[in-house]
Automatic annotation (TrEMBL):
Protein species of origin: Paenibacillus dokdonensis
Signal peptide annotation: 1-30
Residue ranges of the TM segments: none
Keyword Signal: yes
Annotated protein name in UniProt: Extracellular solute-binding protein
Keywords, ordered alphabetically: Signal
């Protein structure tokens, strides 16, 4: 039987710890109780010797459809339950000649449902997921292990033979080509490629109308933030002055506030260029102490561990929360658009990543790389016709496909003005729905294609200004690339270490902040993480980064 990521037994053990343990246990046990345990080994297809006559132009001559497992954009859910039903999905099927059955995981249980799918051996033809193994929400051990486990296919020959559009882009961009393969030179996904202006898109944001009313400046230091949040609580009645989402073990504050202490909430690169794990740094204790204090004082959301995207929407739009860390378009733009009629004074602006001292350049922040692993697609070993899957995926990298994925349907969602795509009033001036909602059903906000430099979803000048503010950090220097690939042997170690460390770290993270664990026990916490192998994980990432730099 193909070696899979997790057995049911290990899944149960893994989910016994954490904020959502009770909910996850029922899901895991239900998944593990199905079937008689007899599984047929999934083997890679002999695609070289059994190529079908699909044609060389679109639409393809496809007699059968394919299956794709991927998240459905939260805005699209407003209109349709499945991507196939959207104008984008219908047009993609028409243009490619391929009918697709989309399987969408629950937004709040993506990681858990992915793990159960892998353990079940019931795989679709293609999966859009983070295969890097870098975080809890990705494939433990990374792409090399996923290939060795018999879960996904090595794509070198497939791209060479059946994906001419992607092949052309990889040949023209050596930096990108270096990013999207393993150290041994194996391609493993059809990548999401960011454009240069789209690398910074998340950061701290705050109610500017409240600041003006209270005669307060936009805070830049930790002390200024404390003063501001206290004013929001006492004078604006905010019950959760600062709130962020916390789902699937991901604390979406990322490195805001944490970076003020010159550390990170994950692996990072220090000033000497060495890999480190932030949550065991001595200064990480200072961050925990700060947020423990803010939590006790009611400045940080007392329900943070239960706050998902819908809960945060409600808190922002009802005035319970005056500051958060979130997305440029799916956060700031969405909320300002939703409130422009209900409360014309409502205004959000980007705030600098906080520092301890006035005038410091923030140690880190959010800055992505050209290759975005999360929305990239791998072809699984269960695909009966990898050629068809590859050609379907390659359409997105063609000139025609790029316009559909970026802008939607010509004449409906955009028109060409002086050879430049321009959104129609249906998209940018819709009386009922926001731009973010409309583009989610006419195009694909994230996925395996190249984002167009001409695409701009900012509908407010505050968004353009926020990008400038959030870009003023040293994130490029200190962010560990998400696409480093360990060796097979390293992958086995890393998978177990990251699972154990992440579960324990997240459990203790919540306990420290809510006051259930004394801060005096921080050294014991660090000692336990070291026993779980974090130093070895750091060694593995350092080796992987050194190898990457030599590619």
């Amino acid at each position: 039987m193909v070696q899979r990521l997790l057995s049911c037994k290990s899944l149960v053990k893994r989910f016994k710890i954490g904020v959502s343990a009770v909910l996850l246990m029922s899901l895991v046990l239900a998944g593990c109780s199905q079937g008689d345990g007899k599984k047929t080994e999934a083997k890679p297809q002999e695609y070289n010797s059994a190529a079908s006559d699909l044609g060389t132009t679109y639409p393809l001559k496809a007699n059968k459809g394919i299956t794709s497992w991927e998240s459905l954009n939260n805005n699209a859910v407003t209109f349709f339950p499945n991507l196939a039903d959207t104008p984008f999905g219908k047009t993609l099927a028409e243009k490619t000649g391929v009918n697709v059955k989309y399987i969408h995981p629950n937004d709040q249980q993506t990681k858990e449902q992915f793990n159960l799918m892998i353990a079940s051996d019931e795989l679709p033809d293609t999966i859009e997921y983070d295969w890097t193994g870098r975080s809890a929400g990705s494939y433990p051990g990374g792409p090399q292990k996923a290939i060795k486990d018999g879960v996904i296919l090595e794509l070198n020959d497939i791209i060479d033979q059946y994906a001419p559009n992607l092949k052309k882009k990889l040949e023209a961009d050596k930096e990108l080509d270096k990013m999207v393969k393993t150290d041994s030179g194996k391609y493993y996904v059809f990548p999401m490629i960011r454009n240069p202006s789209g690398l910074v898109f998340r950061g701290p944001m705050i109610r500017k109308d409240w600041l003006d009313e209270l005669n307060l400046p936009v805070p830049t230091t930790i002390d200024e933030w404390a003063t501001t949040l206290k004013a929001f609580k006492e004078k604006k009645g905010a019950t959760a002055p600062l709130s962020v989402t916390y789902t699937g073990g991901n604390f979406e504050i990322r490195d805001a506030f944490i970076g003020a202490f010159h550390t990170s909430n994950n692996f990072y690169i220090d000033d000497e260029g060495k890999v480190r794990y932030g949550p065991v740094d001595p200064q990480y204790k200072d961050f925990l102490t700060l947020f423990r204090k803010w939590f006790a004082e009611g400045l940080f959301d007392k329900d943070f561990a239960l706050t998902d995207s819908k809960a945060l929407d409600n808190k922002i739009l009802t005035g319970q929360t005056g500051a958060t860390v979130n997305l440029l378009s799916g956060g700031m733009g969405k909320w300002m658009d939703a409130m422009k009629k209900q409360d014309p004074k409502f205004e959000l602006v980007g705030a600098p990543y906080p520092t301890l001292n006035k005038g410091e350049v923030p140690f880190t922040g959010q800055r992505d790389f050209k290759y975005n692993p999360g929305p990239s697609k791998a072809i699984t070993t269960a695909a009966k016709n990898p050629e068809l899957v590859a050609k379907w995926l390659d359409y997105a990298y063609s000139d025609e496909g790029a316009l559909l994925f970026n802008f939607g349907i010509e004449g409906e969602s955009y028109t060409m003005e002086n050879r430049t795509p321009e959104y129609t009033d249906l998209i940018k001036n819709n009386e009922k729905y926001s731009l973010q909602q409309m583009v989610s059903i006419y195009s694909k906000p994230n996925g395996p294609y190249e984002a167009d430099e001409r695409r701009n979803w900012n509908t407010f000048p505050q968004q353009d200004e926020a990008v400038k503010i959030w870009s003023n950090t040293e994130a490029e220097k200190h962010t560990l690339p998400a696409f480093l690939t360990p060796t097979d042997a390293e992958s086995k170690e890393l998978g177990k270490i990251l699972t154990d460390v992440t579960n324990y770290k997240e459990e203790m993270f919540v306990k420290f902040i809510v006051g259930k664990e004394p801060m005096e026990n921080f050294d014991q916490y660090v000692s336990q993480i070291k026993k779980l192998g974090i130093d070895r994980a750091v060694e593995i990432y350092q080796s992987a980064m050194d190898r990457y730099n030599k590619r």
